[in-house]
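Handoff note, outgoing to incoming analyst
You'll be picking up this chain. Sequence as last confirmed:
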Amino acid sequence: MKVLLTFLIVSLAVISAQIDPNCDVFDVSAAKIDPTYYQGTGGHAMFFGDSKIPSGIIEWDFYQNEAIIQNDGEFIALSGTLIPPGKTSPFLEIKMVLEKSKGSFPPHKELKPDAYVPFGPVDPQTWMYYRLKTSTIEAHGAPLEGMNIELSEHMDMPMQVGIGANGKNIVNGMSGWYNFKFTKDGKVIYTSDQVVDFNLNIKCTDCPLGYYSAYPADKQALFVSASDMTPFAGYSQWHFAENSGIVQLNPDFSITVGGVYIPLGKDAPTMVCTMDFYPDLDTFRSMKMELPAADYFPTGPVDVGTWALYRVNTTNSLCSVDTGYTIIITDDKNMPAQVGVGANGKNTDLGLSVWMGFQVMRPDGSIYQNPSDVLDINIGLVCLS
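Most recent structure output, in case you need it:
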């Protein structure tokens, strides 16, 4: 009876942890071995089955054991920085974009037989499958400097996602086998009939209620750089009035940044802003790095590969100033909004930052724009629970 009760408790916990297709961002880590359900070696995020690859390094883990998956409902993007265990060089910057498959596939089972239903908590019929759309793996540091690793599906096997799908334990995870080749300067320098194996744990990190309180990451939450400051009553530095800053997660995987702004140290004028952003799964890495170099990989806590990226939706983004001017957002300066640890550009806390161009609508309805004008948002985020 005690064994049965334990099994039921574990089963209920697993069911409640099933993958949520509505989650915006997942934390990703190496799938560590649970000896109760897996017999064998491993426990790394990525493993090459061929020891003759360039560098000979076959085991790779994520920096600080953390990567992310960003979801837009149809596609997911896995992004992070891979390092040899206990080292920071050489390293691999990776991004894989995968598409949700509507087909069915035979599950790849690597756990012990008693891990699977009806004897255990893992039910492969609940798994989801994702086909590889694109992948970018850039290698840095000797002896891999300048190399790239190209991936393709092994025997048309997709990435499998779900409870126990990582093949190493019974938590929510994912795994997949891929053919690979090392290239440099556009030429293949090594390929193999072996595969590279991903075994990952995943966990949704969205704020449960879907809202984050936003606060100024530095002195101001919003900074205006404009040739004509009249629409802003001459003020360049703005912060939130009465803790009004908020970031909302929307059902379509977009985010909305909203709030009432007032000039730093003043009570008026007020500027009400609503800005929408949609997921950007294609941009490889953000280059908007404003913190001291020591804060970033490999010496600091900030890994730009773990930032979620978004593009501004110009049809739903504007600010209304109570002086009669309307600020219409027109672009994001060809750099996505970035969300993550250190992404606010002012400190190493969780935050968001973005540069945006804009038009100004005067009170009489006429519109003008200076291409060099910029709104710069730098905010910290705290989950509202």
